[in-house]
Design goal:
- The protein is α+β, with helices and mostly antiparallel strands and about 375 residues long.
- It folds into 3 domains: about 70 residues, no CATH class; about 250 residues, no CATH class; about 35 residues, no CATH class.
- Helix content is about 50%, strand content about 20%.
- The strands form 3 sheets. Strands 4-9-5-8 form a 4-stranded antiparallel β-sheet. It has a 3-stranded antiparallel β-sheet with strand order 1-3-2. A two-stranded antiparallel sheet has the order 6-7.
- α4 packs across α8.
- The longest helix is centred in the C-terminal third of the chain and has 31 residues.
- The radius of gyration is 27 Å and the shape is globular.
Length: about 375
């Protein structure tokens, strides 16, 4: 690797150009990711689209991490998530498989509290309540959701590798099914009412049964899932956004979700949709590993202890991540970016209140009084 050709502040238009300057081979997939990780030992950089911006050249390369010793750099509290997931599955044994929204599963594990779900789509209200700018709240939800999802799915993957469960993501819809009462012939039921008119004569009034609505939360069909994806992609193109992350950075997320819900409802009677986890549990396998369900099912005080410990660890991880982002942003000259959305993100994280605001949000949305 030839570092003599690069210096802090330089911008390279893409990965291939940087490889050429460094004298490095062009790679793909996992090999490319490993290569980028290796580069981080010698210099730091940030990405702006396809561009690479060099921020610092290290005088001494950072030591290479031994993943075998570090357990692949695993988050320390993953084992707590595993234990509480298994405990939850045992509690649901009589109900069969577990089908929960991501937020409800996180709430059951005490990785978030009820306010995290309540304020998710009421961010202006949360901004008024906390005094924190909505843009910072958007950034908090984006980074926190990413962290919690990775942690949760890492624990699920570890349990799946032990053949204790099988899990999958599922699109879930709130479907509104209108129906009416019918007679024995299958026709709409009519009701007869006798009224006395102004002349004193009896008059028969017939009225049809009123329709009623069944609200059903269920797994989306393949057609429904594909239709939802098509609507979302069409709206992303309409708003000139590559991904949903761009929507938050442009302040268009609320508008996007409202418009998507309206289009989808008008075509399908789906009021709204969300992501869920479907978990199939191997209770026999758990029995063999842990002797009996009674040994696995945690006592109330044990469960609270693990939940409290997990909640504390999640808060610490979110705080430490925020500190790292703040320090990194402080060392970046945002004027180098030609992307206004990236400038906004750096501006938020550079703010002197960034750490304080993050702590207030974790206290409000994550902390559980267990």
């Amino acid at each position: 690797m030839n570092l003599s050709n690069i210096k802090a502040g330089q911008t390279f238009k893409n990965y291939k150009e940087l490889c050429s300057i460094l004298g490095e081979p062009i790679k793909n997939g996992a090999s490319k990711r490993a290569q980028l990780k290796e580069w981080e030992r010698y210099f730091s950089y940030v990405k702006n689209g396809h561009k690479f911006i060099i921020t610092e050249i290290f005088k001494t390369p950072k030591p290479k991490q031994d993943k075998r010793k570090e357990g692949h750099n695993e988050t320390p509290y993953i084992n707590l998530i595993e234990k509480l997931i298994l405990d939850l599955l045992v509690q649901h044994k009589e109900k069969g498989n577990v089908f929960l929204s991501k937020n409800m599963l996180l709430k059951e594990l005490k990785m978030i509290n009820e306010d995290y779900i309540y304020y998710r789509n009421k961010r202006f209200k949360l901004s008024d309540f906390t005094g924190i700018p909505k843009l910072h709240i958007d950034e908090f939800y984006d980074t926190t959701d990413d962290t919690l999802t990775r942690n949760l799915e890492r624990a699920l993957n570890k349990l799946e590798k032990q053949s204790l469960l099988f899990w999958s993501r599922a699109m879930t819809v709130c479907f509104l099914d209108a129906d009416v009462i019918t007679n024995e012939m299958g026709e709409i039921k009519l009701y007869k009412e006798i009224k006395i008119n102004e002349n004193g004569d009896k008059e028969e009034i017939y009225t049809p049964s009123k329709p009623y609505i069944n609200i059903v939360h269920r797994k989306a069909t393949n057609w429904e899932t594909e239709f939802i994806l098509k609507v979302e992609r069409w709206l992303l193109d309409k708003y000139d956004c590559e991904s949903k992350l761009d929507l938050y950075r442009k302040g268009l997320a609320d508008q996007f979700h409202e418009e998507a819900k309206e289009i989808i409802f008008n075509k399908t009677n789906i009021a709204y949709y969300y992501k869920s986890y479907e978990i199939i549990c191997n209770h026999e396998g758990i029995l063999r590993k842990w002797k009996s369900l009674n040994d696995l099912l945690l006592k109330m005080d044990e469960r609270k202890h693990y939940q409290k410990e997990l909640n504390k660890n999640v808060i610490n991880r979110l705080h430490n991540n925020a500190v790292k982002r703040h320090k990194k942003a402080k060392n970046i000259n945002s004027s180098k970016y030609d992307n206004n959305n990236k400038q906004w993100l750096i501006h938020i994280r550079k703010d002197n209140d960034y750490i304080h605001n993050t702590k207030k949000l974790t206290d409000t949305l994550i902390k559980n009084d267990i």
